[in-house]
Amino acid sequence: MERKIIKVKHVTGTYIIEVPHGALNEMKTQLDKCLNDEQGAIVVKGEDGDQFVYPSDLLKNSFIAIVDRE
User: Fold this and answer.
1) Distance CA 64, CA 54 (A)
2) What is the pTM of this model?
3) What are the phi and psi torsion angles at 51 (to 5°)?
4) Residue 65 to residues 5, 14, 36, 49, 69: CA-CA distances in angstroms?
5) ∠ CA 43-45-49, rounded to 5°
6) Cα separation of 50 and 64, whole Å?
7) Which of 1, 27, 44, 59 is such that its CA lies 20 to 30 A from the CA of 52?
């Protein structure tokens, strides 16, 4: 199974969300909830403990693609 990433293209830039191994369906569910106003944001923890927050307003105004990691 290929590793996936989520590319979010917004007017402020392109953001890459790393999808943890085996968590693609969970990330898709979180994206759907954000786009349907059921969840306020997606929060992803980085490898070094940093947290990245992707608010639902940012996601709603973006082009989102799930692609293979390069």
Assistant:
1) 12
2) 0.84
3) -110, 135
4) 8, 11, 17, 25, 12
5) 140
6) 23
7) 1
